[in-house]
Every structure is written in C-alpha cells, then in structure tokens.
Design goal:
The chain is α+β, with helices and mostly antiparallel strands. The protein is built from nine helices and 25 strands.
Length: 389
C-alpha cells in the first residue's frame, strides 16, 4: 500500500487538559468545555487511529500498518502533569516480566510496567511551554536549599549524601514531615503573593499553583519538593527537548507535539492522585545534575527541520512554510503528518488531501513522493520511524 490517506486520531479527555486548543485543531465545538488534553495518532491499543481508505467504514491503522514503533501526540497542558520517569529498555523488559509472573493485572492501580518497552520522548513547543527536567546543577541546587528558608534543613543532607540521598529522603519522608516542612512554605507564599501572582520563571509560581490542586485532606503532595530540586525550563515555540530514560520530568503549562516510543510505562513521583511506587521510582531515576539541552533542529535543502535524538524508535521533523511555498519528501516507512497551522495540500500524484483545521492529520505509506503546497502560512510536522538525518 502506497500513498497518502486522511487519518483520524483519538482525543483523551484528561482533567489537566485545556478546552479550546485541540477542539480548534479538529474544528470541533466544545460547548460543555470538556477538557481535551491529548490527541493521539498511531497504533497504540488505547488510542487506535483510523484511516479513510475510500470505503464506507474507516480502517484501523494497525490493520494496514501493523504496530508503529512510535506514538505521536498533541498536548494541551492547562494544569501541571505528574512528575514522572520512564525505565530503560532493559529495565522495562525485566520488570514487566516480573509483574507478569506475579500475576498483577495490567489495569491494576499498583501496576507499574504495562509493557516491555522503554519510553523515550521528544516534545516540540507549539507555544511558550514550561516544564521540569532533571535535577538542577549542584551550585543551583545549593543556592535553592540555602535561600528557601523552609528547605534549609535539607542542605546538610545534600552535602553529605548527594542527589540520590536527598531525593530518596524526600520521597520516603513520613507524610507528617512533608506537611511540617511544606505547610509554612506554602503559607509564606500565600502571604507574599496574596495580591499578585509570582513570575512563571520562579519556582515559587509553580509551588503556589500546585498548592491549589495537590493538597488533599490536609496532606501536601511531596512532589512539590521536586519543583525546587529540578530544572525549571521555558521553551519557546519551535524549540524541543528530549526526555531520556531515567530523567525525571513534568509538563507544567502550554501546548506541544510529542513523539515517543510506543509504550505506557510511567513511574510517578508526585503532583498526582495516582499510584506512586517509591521503591520503583528511586530505582530508575537518574539522580545526577542535568543541564537541559534545548533542540532547535537541523534544516535540509527542502526546508525541513529535523529534531535529532539518540534513539532509533522515531524521528520528528517540521516544514515551516509561507504561502506559496512547496516542499516534498520520500517516506521510507509508515509516517504521520500533522498540520498545526495554516492550510496545505498534500499530493502523491494520485491523491490530493487538504490538511487544515478539522482534517489536520494524514498517514503516508512508502512508495510515492509526497508534495506539500502551502495555501497560507503553515506548519506541518512529520513523524517517522526512519532516521531522517
């Protein structure tokens, strides 16, 4: 099977999602203001895309493309997501087999490993985007623990036991100790910012925001510690970042596209009501200083910008086109294209598809050159299993 076909993904209505960005992309009316958090494109069993092949009933993508090694998404993050980390491929295979042998149901809340795959992720911002990514470098972390009075008692622990000792301590700390440390901090922020909210470039803003959502029955979510321990990163539109195995992270606010290995293995570390297995979390977190590497991509002669990563599971690229621009590419695997702005006609010589709001995505099979013609200023992402660099 060759050529290009319209593809319809699956919307996920998680409570942290926004109410307008994805409905606008899909040209849907959202009168009830239901959260539209994610738009999935791929063959994941929990979000199977369908393809318009010309029949009366759309065809599930996995019946004509088998299982893709990647899952492609659009995210609209209104409220912060959980702090999380993903295991390596070797660890996922081992731990999945262990839970299978133990007879833990795949849908059990305490189940940590849903499959035997790793889950590296690449995201590219569609707006200003805020996230947490890895532990702060040593000097920055010492500065935080010194200048945030309520965290002073953690400084000797960090000096003596390093990142691993500090993180293990706050994650295993009795809940009453979490409350003892964090409640005065939250009270202090509430007093300081009672008339004006802090700047988003300050950790205080995200702690202030988290405190409004993650205190239940008087117990404060210990994930708030991580807001101070991890790098606070702001991405501008078009900038990307790669989440490797073991790097703790959390999406805080904004819209992005995200591509990942086809896996659902998530170990959570707070800012959530879902299950947290501290033993498994600490086992797989890379407790080391991290300097965030912002990816701007490499541009080829067609104007295609590729966001390179160190994994073979996927590649993500983008065409940023002005009205009247044309470009082309030759797919070598099953690929997904997604328009996030504008109007583009995609043509394989036999079929022409208009990518626009309402029909923003298509699947492309190898065997034919695909031509893109922009009818307006447009942005088209290309997700592939092939290495484009």
């Amino acid at each position: 099977m060759a050529g290009i076909y319209k593809l319809t993904g699956v919307v996920k209505h998680y409570e942290w999602g926004g109410i307008s960005f994805i409905p606008s992309l899909l040209k849907k009316v959202n009168e009830k203001k239901i959260p539209h958090a994610e738009y999935w494109m791929g063959t994941h069993p929990l979000g199977q895309s369908v393809v318009d092949t010309g029949g009366s009933i759309p065809t599930e993508l996995n019946t004509i493309a088998n299982s893709l090694p990647y899952l492609f998404k659009v995210l609209d993050v209104k409220d912060m997501l959980s702090i999380q980390v993903h295991p390596s491929k070797v660890a996922a295979e081992k731990e999945f087999a262990r839970e299978e042998e133990a007879g833990i149901s795949l849908d059990a809340p305490e189940r940590c490993y849903k499959d035997a795959n790793h889950k590296p992720e690449l995201m590219v911002a569609l707006s200003d985007f805020w996230l947490l990514h890895g532990f702060k470098p040593t000097e920055e972390l010492i500065d935080i623990l010194t200048n945030v009075a309520e965290l002073n008692e953690l400084l000797p622990l960090f000096n003596n036991s390093g990142y691993a000792g500090l993180y293990k301590h706050v994650m295993e700390m009795p809940q009453q100790e979490v409350n003892r440390i964090l409640q005065p901090l939250i009270d202090n922020l509430a007093n300081i910012y009672k008339d004006v909210s802090p700047d988003k470039s300050s950790e205080d803003y995200w702690v202030w925001k988290a405190a409004a959502s993650f205190i239940h029955d008087g117990n404060i979510d210990r994930g708030i510690f991580s807001i101070y321990l991890f790098n606070l990163v702001q991405l501008k539109k078009g900038e990307g970042i790669f989440q490797a195995d073991g790097v703790p992270h959390a999406y805080l606010e904004g819209q992005n596209v995200e591509i990942m290995a086809n896996s659902d293995n998530v170990l959570r570390g707070g800012l959530t009501t879902k299950h947290i297995d501290v033993t498994e979390l600490v086992k797989h977190v890379k407790c080391e200083a991290t300097i965030p590497q912002i990816i701007t991509g490499d541009v080829n002669e067609e104007g295609e910008r590729t966001y390179n990563t160190p994994v073979p599971d996927f590649t993500l690229s983008v065409f940023e086109m002005e009205k009247g621009d044309v470009a082309s590419f030759n797919p070598t695997t099953t690929e997904i294209v997604l328009l996030t702005e504008g109007v583009v006609e995609a043509d394989d010589d036999d079929t022409t598809i208009k990518l626009q709001a309402g029909t923003p995505s298509a699947v492309v099979f190898p065997g034919a050159t695909v031509y893109l013609a922009a009818a307006a200023k447009s942005v088209v992402f290309r997700a592939s299993a092939a290495q484009l660099r």
